[in-house]
TrEMBL record:
This is Uncharacterized protein. Keywords: Membrane, Transmembrane, Transmembrane helix. The chain crosses the membrane at residues 7-24, 30-47, 59-77. It comes from the Archaea. It comes from Haloterrigena turkmenica (strain ATCC 51198 / DSM 5511 / JCM 9101 / NCIMB 13204 / VKM B-1734 / 4k). InterPro entries: DUF8044 (IPR058357). The keyword Membrane applies. The keyword Transmembrane helix applies.
Length: 87
């Protein structure tokens, strides 16, 4: 439950901060949530025994990193001029 509360608090803080700054977008929220997931995962890691649900968390983190790569590639393609792209 500590993990869930920490992740929800991080995501709520991210939504509030992005809203107050007037820069809310789904991409930024996704990236901030992924950063929060990584931080909360490390801060709540047990020392001796790893529960089964924490092992399955690796798949969620891997999916999040793939999504992050997609966001980065999309942003790079937006920045590049059309002459550079082969299509």
């Amino acid at each position: 439950m500590r993990f869930i509360r920490g992740q929800l608090a991080w995501m709520l803080a991210a939504v509030l901060a992005l809203s107050l700054l007037g820069s809310f977008s789904y991409e930024l929220f996704f990236v901030l949530s992924l950063i929060g997931l990584l931080i909360v995962t490390e801060l709540t890691a047990p020392f001796s025994v790893t529960p089964d649900w924490r092992r399955r968390l690796r798949w969620l983190i891997a999916l999040g990193l793939v999504g992050f790569a997609v966001v980065v590639v999309r942003r790079i393609l937006e920045i590049l001029p059309p002459e550079v792209l082969p299509w």
